[in-house]
Amino acid sequence: MPDYTITITKTAQKQLDKLSENIADILIEAIQQLAINPRPAGCKKLKGREGYRVRKGNYRIIYDIFDNILTINIIAVGHRKDIYN
Question: Checking CA distances to 76, which of 3, 44, 61, 63 falls within 20 to 30 Å?
Answer without folding.
Answer: 3
